[in-house]
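Board notes (copied after class):
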Amino acid sequence: MYKKIVKLAEPFYKKGRSGDLVHIGWISKKLFDLKPTIEKKGHDFDITYALAILHDVGYSKMPKGYNPYDLKIRKAHSKESSKIAKVILEKVNFPKSKRKKTLWLIEHHDDWAFGKSLEDPEWRIFTDFDFSWEASRKGFDVVRKFLNQNRREFLKTVQADYKIKQKRTPFFLTKSKKLFLEDLRYWKERLIK
C-alpha cells in the first residue's frame, strides 16, 4: 500500500514545486526508519505515512509563479491536497476507518503557519519530519533556494525556525529531534568558521 501511495502521488509532485519528489522520498525513508518507534508508542503509522506523502500534492494545482509561503496559497494547496489524497487513498484501498482523519490532517497540515497547533500525535510526528527537512542534507539547499538565501543566511533562518518550533510545537519524538540536531550540527560545522 505504501509504495502505491508514493507511485500515485509522484505525477502530482512532478507538476508541483521543485524538490518535492526528493522531499517525499526523504520523509518516506525517515518514517520507515522510525516505524517501530512510532508503532511501539501506539501511534498510527498508516495515517502518519499517508499524511507525510500526500500533504503537498495540491501544489500541482496552484497557478504558475505562486509563492509557496503565501498564506492564501498554503490554504489553497492544503485543500487541493486533501481532494487529491481522497482519490489516491480510495485507489489503494486505504482503511476506510482511517481516511476521514487522514484527509482532515492533510487539509490542516499547515495550520501552524496560521498560528494554530494540533495536538494530534500523527500530525506532530509528521510535523517533526516536515520541519526537519529544511535542515537535512538533501533539503537544506532545496528550501533555501525557495527563500533566495545563501547557505549562511539560511542556516540562521533554520536556527531561528528551530527556536520558534520549540516554543510552538516542540519535537514530539526524541529520535526526530536528534535527527534534526545532527543535521543542524552538520551545517554549522561547514558554514561557521
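Comment from the instructor: The mean pLDDT is 92. The chain has one domain: 2-191.
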